[in-house]
Amino acid sequence: MSCAQTFADYALRSIGIGARGLPRTDFDLCHQFVLIGSGLIWNLYFGILALAVGFFLATALALAKASDNPWLRRPAEAFIFVFRGSPLFIQFFLAYSAVVLLPREGLNVLGVTIPTAWLARAWAGALIVLILNTAAYSAEIFHGGLRNVPKGDLEAAEAYGLSGWSRFRRIVWPTMLRLSWPAYTNEAIFLFHATTLVFFSAFPAVQQMGDSLYYASYLADKTFNPFVAYPIVAGYFILLTLGLIALFGVVNRRLNRHLPGAAQRLRYRPKLIR
Q1: Which pTM was predicted?
Q2: Cβ contact 206:121 at 8 Å
Q3: Residue 195: CB partners within 8 Å, gap ≥ 6?
């Protein structure tokens, strides 16, 4: 089988498009790169959605934690403490253990049956855990940014007549993001790396449609050689990390475009004469 045919058969297999069964013999590098790359689609799914939803949830949690109202502050502090203080793998395990206790036919609320079986699937249950976990870590990062917004900026906003939502949208929120963005970039990278833990969680992969680590484990078991499949996974994630650094770097330059020297690029200037 040519590499082009292998790509056509297995490139989208992790989402149910292409060959139904996995190959069992005659594995070459093309098979391994294509199958693991196919599984990476799920890692991207978990990472992108968890980051997108978690960003807004983290902003709300950071504002609640910075609030003077104890009814908002204390629940936010408790949520952040629990999800930052416990291992992500334990959170996966507890979440799955909780959802499988729900009745298979769904919950009956006021005569309306709410389906619950979908929560036990990796695409939903594992995603919810990742959202809550990254929201807790990101909220702590954003809360630090909120506490470090210069008072001079707030006083200037008041002098211009900005208050409430206008001040938050124009002054507080952009400044919070600018101060928090380097640390938030690290959290985004760690989140995408953490998507590999879905393979070890109890959430099942339906019809062998798993993530990159699922296919790497399958190939390592079939070839009895873990020194090919797992480095391929690492290589894919290194490329993904480089892409995230580049993308978040663009946003960082956008957030800091008003600062002196922000548009200057780094240049190599060797010191030839001491």
Answers
A1: 0.91
A2: yes
A3: 42, 43, 46, 47, 50, 130, 211
Copy the structure tokens of residue 141: 């990062």
The SS3 call for residue 272 is coil
pLDDT digits (tens, 9 = 90+) for 54-105: 999 999 999 999 999 999 999 999 999 999 999 999 999 999 999 988 887 8
**Predicted pLDDT at 165:** 85
Q: Are the C-beta atoms of residues 230 and 221 closer than 8 Å to each other?
A: no
- Angle 224-225-226 from CA coordinates, rounded to 5°: 115
With vertex at residue 140, the alpha carbon angle to CA 172 and CA 143, rounded to the nearest 5 degrees, is 20
Domain extents in the chain: 3-18+27-253
The tokens of 219 are what?
A: 């190939």
* 162, two tokens: 């900005």
Q: What is the DSSP letter of 20?
A: S
Confidence category of residue 154, pLDDT binned at 50, 70, 90 = confident
Give me the phi and psi of 108, to 5 degrees please. -95, 110
Q: Tokens 């909220």 map to which residue?
A: 139
Amino acid letter, residue 232 = I
Sort residue 111 into left (φ over 0), alpha (ψ -120 to 50) or beta.
Answer: left
Q: For 72, phi and psi rounded to 5 degrees? A: -95, -40
Q: How many angstroms separate the CA atoms of 173 and 168, rounded?
A: 6
User: For residue 200, how many other CB atoms are within 10 A of its CB?
Assistant: 12
Pick the CATH number of 3-18+27-253 from 2.40.100.10, 3.90.79.10, 1.10.3720.10, 3.40.109.10: 1.10.3720.10
Give the whole-angstrom CA distance, residue 170 versus residue 255: 12
* Chain centroid, CA 206 distance in Å: 22
